[in-house]
Amino acid sequence: MSDPKFQKTLKPVKSQGSDPAFFSVWDIHAYYGESYIVQGVSFDIHEGEIVALLGRNGAGKTSTLRAIARTDDPQIHKGEIWLDHEPLHDMKSFEASRLGLALVPEDRRIIPGLTVQENLELAQIEGKKGWSIERLYELFPRLGERKNQIGVTMSGGEQQMLAVARALAKDIKLLLLDEPYEGLAPVIVHEIEKTLEDIKKLGITTIIVEQNAIAALHLADRAIIMDSGQIVFDGTAQEVLDNDELRQEYLAI
Ligand SMILES: Nc1ncnc2c1ncn2[C@@H]1O[C@H](COP(=O)(O)OP(=O)(O)O)[C@@H](O)[C@H]1O
Ligand SMILES: [Mg+2]
């Protein structure tokens, strides 16, 4: 943020003419120290859309999500991020979170020592309240059954459910899911897929990063493929499913 080239006063680039997109990333360049990783990424997302962000290991997907969520690393040296007319690029992660951005990281970050219920209650204190805990237990019955269990002692799949539920406990505008199926048995993947389908029906704008590209493409409306820190494809999920060459080159499926 200290880079003098960083222009705080720019208008949303895509707002000229018609309405700006609900969520817009414009030409972001992000670094870990000297390492230049996110190299000019731009895309728009409409409200309610589900976008799969795909690409090989090391392509820069997690770094892009972290840049959007305004975590301390990577640092954005240039570019803009707009969520519902608010400039996320000018914000710290807690401000972005307060504004309705929820990142569910790969490692899930369930709070040690707290029960399932306490993890959810804490989320509601941190942000503007979203779903009630009762409603979250309806969507995730397993969490309801385990509400007094210490969160980190649950299985990987259950912890993933808790991580997603915790995001929904706040009033969110954009959900970022980093590899929600990672390390989970196929039957659990299927269960979480069903939950994400339910969330999809509620119209929550979502970006899902997944190595399990087929599962993500079935859920998503759109697909963005990254390679070496840049976007190499932006189109419909169906186009990716239909394009063998594209899948072999960038997704190895
Ligand atoms: N904390 C970090 N410091 C330095 N380089 C990093 C850091 N995290 C990731 N990288 C590098 O950034 C590149 C993109 O990583 P990442 O965004 O995690 O990719 P993906 O999520 O697509 O697998 C990789 O080359 C990785 O080594
Ligand atoms: Mg990653």
Automatic annotation (TrEMBL):
Note the superkingdom of the native organism.
Answer: Bacteria
| InterPro entries found in the cross-reference section | AAA+_ATPase (IPR003593), ABC_transporter-like_ATP-bd (IPR003439), ABC_transporter-like_CS (IPR017871), BCAA_Transport_ATP-bd_LivF (IPR052156), P-loop_NTPase (IPR027417)
BP term (GO), one: L-amino acid transport
Q: What is this protein called?
A: High-affinity branched-chain amino acid transport ATP-binding protein LivF
The UniProt entry, under CDD domains, shows: ABC_TM1139_LivF_branched
GO terms (molecular function) for this protein are: ATP binding; ATP hydrolysis activity; branched-chain amino acid transmembrane transporter activity
Keywords assigned by UniProt, alphabetized: Amino-acid transport, ATP-binding, Nucleotide-binding, Transport
> Which family is it part of?
Belongs to the ABC transporter superfamily.
- ABC transporter domain location is 23-253
Query: Which SUPFAM superfamilies does the entry link to?
Result: P-loop containing nucleoside triphosphate hydrolases
A Pfam family cross-referenced in the UniProt record is ABC_tran
